[in-house]
Amino acid sequence: MKHTRRLSALCVALAIVQPAAHAANLTWDANSATALRPNIVFIFSDDHSIQAIGAYNTWLSAFCREHQVTPHIDRLAAEGAVFVNSFCGNSLCSPSRATVLTGLHSHANGVRRLEQPITPGLWTYPVSLRQAGYQTAIIGKWHLATTKPEFDYWRILPGQGAYENPGFIGPSGPEPHQGYASDVITELALDWLKQRDPAKPFFLAVQHKAPHRNWIPPARYSKWLDDATVPEPTTLFDDYAHRGSPAHDQEMSIGPDMTLASDLKVGERYAGDPRYLARNVDFQQRKPAGSELIRWKYQQYMKDYLRCVKSVDDSVGRVMGALKATGLEKNSIVIYASDQGFFNGEHGWFDKRWIYEESLHMPLIVNWPGVVKPGSRFTPFVQNIDYAPTFVEMAGGKIPGGLHGRSLVPILRGETPGDWRQSVYYHYYDHDGAHNVANHYGVRTERYTLANFYPVKEWELYDLEKDPLELNSVYHNPDYAPTVRMLETELARLRALYQDNDPLETGRQKDQARPSRK
Ligand code: CA
Q1: How many CA atoms lie within 13 A of 266 on its CB side?
Q2: What's residue 32's pLDDT?
Q3: Neighbour count for residue 481 (Cβ, 10 Å)
Q4: What is the pLDDT of residue 508?
Q5: How far apart are the first and last CA of the chain?
C-alpha cells in the first residue's frame, strides 16, 4: 500500500497539476517508440454482470456457455486473463465512469451520483495517453455531466442514449445515426480504426449502452432463447429475514418494481411490435400472478438482458476480427469490462447500487498478447480506481501522483507486488435516486463484507465463507465481535487513507413526497 499511503491533503491538487509537468519532461521520440508500445482497445459495457459471462464461474455461467451468450468475450478470456476479484467503489453508472477516468473514488472526483460533473480541472487518463504520443478515441456511452471528453476523437451518446437509431454528440454537435446502438457504436469504432494515423499507437474506448435497462434487444436476437428456460437464482424469493431494514425497503424487486409496460414490453406501448407479440399473447393466456408472475417476469427480463449482452459480445468479436484482419492483433491489448455488476434475480432483484456481491463485482478481462499468460485467473483485489494508472503504464506514460488506484501491469506480468491491497473501499450516495437504496459505505475483504447504512444507523456483516449468498447478517452475533472490531479498524484505515471525510447524514434523505409501497 506504499503508493496509496502517500496520500495527503494535497494529493488531489497534485493530480491536477502533475500531467502538465510530465508533458514538459517527455523525452522519447514518439515515432521510434511506436513499434514497442501496444495499442489499447478498452471495451466497456453497461450493467453487465459477471454472472452473465461464460468465462466466470457463477451459477449462470454454464447456461451462458451452453447457449453461446458470450463466445467472443470467453475467447478473449481464454487467450488472456480474468480478474476474479474485480470490484467497483460505488455501484452506479456515472460514478464508476468518473472513477475509471480519474483513478479516484467518488468523494475525490466529485461524481457521487448520476450525471454530476467531474471536478473541473481534474486529471483524466486520456491526457497522459496523448502526452505519451497516443491517438485517443472514445465512442459510445459517456453519461457524465462533463460534456467535453479529453480524447482526440469522440462521439458520445447523450445521457443514457437510445437503443434504436441513437443520436450521438461530437465536437460539431448532435449527429443522427441509424441502427441498433451496439452495432452503431461498433461501426463508428471500426471506421475510426481505418481513419486513424497508422504511424502512432492508439487507445480506443468502445463504450456500450447495452445491456442497461430497459433491455431492448437487437431484432436479430428477438427470438433467440425463446425455447430456453433461464435457470433461477436460489435467492429469487429471498425474504430478507436475517437482514437490516434497507433490504426490506428497497425498490428494485422483480415482483413489484419491474414494470410490465416498459421493462417487459407487455401492453399497449409495444402492442404493434412483432418482436414482443408472442410474449403479449402468452401473458394474456396465462395471466400469471403471485410467485408465477415473478417467475414469468424473470424469464422475460433475463432473455432480453442476455439478448442485449449478446449484441455486446458481437461487438467484441467484430473488433477482435478487425484487429486480426489488419495485422494489429499481436500488438494490441484488448480489455473488456463493465461499469458495475448487476442483480440477475438474486435476492429477487434487478439493478445494482449495493455493496453486495452481484453489484460489487465488475467483470474485467485483459488480453495482452506476449505479456499475459493465456488462461490466467488473477485473484488480487482490484478496483475501478486502478484502470487509469493501468492504461497510462501500458502506454509507457507517467502516472501522476495522488491517485487512489495502482497500475495492474505488474499483476498482468505475473508479478503481483507484495504490498498489494487486501481489501477494497466502497461508498454509495444515491439514496434519493431510483430504487430507494440507503446510502452506505463499507469494506470487502477476502472473507467478509462490512457495511454501515448510516441514514438508518444500521450495520451489516456477512461471512462470505459460510454465507456466500449474503442471507444472514452476523453483525450482532457475539461470536463475530472480534471480527467486527478488526473490520471496523480496517474500514477506518481505508477512510483515512482515501480521505473520505464526507458528512454521514442520518435520517431518510429520500423524497418524502414519493409514495412508498411498504
Ligand atoms: Ca451502469
Answers
A1: 21
A2: 40
A3: 11
A4: 58
A5: 44
64 CB-near residues (< 8 Å, 6+ apart): 52, 53, 54, 70, 306
Enumerate the H helices of 356-473 as residue ranges: 357-360, 387-394, 409-412
Domains of the chain in sequence order: 428-512 (3.30.1120.10)
pLDDT for res 29 = 39
CA of 264 to the centre of ligand 1 (A): 19
CA 196 to ligand 1 centroid distance, Å: 29
Q: In the numeric block, which cell numbers belong to residue 150?
A: 479529453
- Compute, in angstroms, the gap from residue 117 CA to the centroid of ligand 1: 16
* Distance (Å) from CA 282 to ligand 1 centroid: 31
What per-residue string of b and e applies to 412-425 under the rule 16 or more CB within 10 Å gives b? Answer: beeeeeeeebebbb
Report yes or no on whether pTM surpasses 0.70. Answer: yes
Bridge partner residues of 82 (DSSP): 365, 377
Count CA atoms within 13 Å of residue 198 on its CB side: 6
For residue range 158-202, list pLDDT tens digits in order. Answer: 999 999 999 999 999 999 999 999 999 999 999 999 999 999 999
Look up cell 452506505; give the residue: 440
> 440477475: which residue's cell?
344
Q: How far is the CA of 27 from the centre of ligand 1 (A)?
A: 39
- The Å distance, Cα 46 to ligand 1 centre, comes to 4
Residue 456: what residue type? V
pLDDT at 146: 84
pLDDT digits (tens, 9 = 90+) for 370-394: 999 999 999 999 999 999 999 999 9
Handedness of CA 404, 56, 449, 342 (dihedral sign): positive
